[in-house]
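## Example record

The block below lists the input lines for one assembly entry, exactly as stored, with component labels intact.
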Amino acid sequence: MAAPGENLRINADRLWDSIMEMAKIGPGVAGGNNRQTLTDSDKEGRALFQSWCDASGLSMGVDKMGTMFARREGTDPEALPVYVGSHLDTQPTGGKYDGVLGVLAGLEIVRSLDDLGIKTKHPIVVANWTNEEGARFAPAMLASGVFAGVHTLDFAYARKDMDGKSFGDELKRIGWLGDEEVGARKMHAYFEYHIEQGPILEAENKQIGVVTHGQGLWWLEFTLTGKEAHTGSTPMNMRVNAGLAMARIFEMVQHVAMTNQPGAVGGVGQMKFSPNSRNVLPGTVVFTVDIRSPDQDKLDGMRATIEEEAARIAVELDVGCSVEAVGHFDPVTFDPVLVDRVRKAAEDLGYSHMNIISGAGHDACWAARVAPATMVMCPCVDGLSHNEAEDISKEWAAAGADVLFHAVVETAEI
Ligand code: HGY
Ligand code: MN
Ligand code: MN
Ligand code: MN
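Predicted structure tokens for the full assembly:
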């Protein structure tokens, strides 16, 4: 029987086939996926994952945020489980691998342990966290945030999508409101395997990202109030132009991020003009600024500067301005023991590797608040993600899953 450190390998074809099978659910329009949280396609994806867990004899627990926990028993039922998780929900124009790779690599570890007839001391639990993306309901990593005690269940249930539907109602509607108290589960350790979603590993020609930290984030939702007026007959000096204020704030955010290099990013991904008519100056403009940095002081300093500058711009243009932080987490340091285990696994397996800070947020960032946690990353083509053209190679997928396999088995003990 192979032991960690020897050539424990997952079944690369089976992992790849599972990813491709899941990708058929909630297809996008350009080869990726649109399987947004709590939609009918999310429900379908959950059912497929449930069927695979059933086939592997896993017992499924579901909590009051709809997160799925598929458990493989260990030899010591009292031992806290080792969790391996990520998410099956996608962006509206998402790729096939963001999140899915991590959940299905966890399932592949279970399948490979069964093939090898290996029983670990600690149980192993594969998790599918609800609403990691935050695309439909802000903030991102919502379920893992409730699990870590950062958000209340009421806060989460009250979150509304752009059509005014609530998280709580939609969770009930798709039939995935579980009965477990959120956060009642205790973890021996938490691992998450994810595509990098950035260009570093591919550019450095490394197969494995040994993730030491995750950068912190603020999502600042601005509501600017102007005056609806005719775009043709309203003289320029009579306009109360919320759209112009948004443009100036957007430009200022770019400047603040660029003057906080290295290690800061800032931008806007979502914006809503009302009434959004071609020949009406907007009465209101709502948009979310996304700023991130691994450096706590930089992160909080950028937030303060952006809010001050936005207020100044609004006064200058006589536009109303309010801002609400709709998403936040501090920079996270992953567990050094687990990080070393990932690095050692990459070395044992002969995979090229480098330390990396996660640019994107992950459920691991919240899990790290309640258990020793870390991540494994693989490269992605051109560093592209949150785009239907997101792509990885089967070899990349398998290499990271092998490393995850070793680190998980080492932690779950044979
Ligand atoms: O926004 C993020 O970093 C993640 O993709 N939810
Ligand atoms: Mn993700
Ligand atoms: Mn994502
Ligand atoms: Mn903070």
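Residues 120 and 414 are 4 Å apart (CA to CA). The chain has a mean pLDDT of 97.
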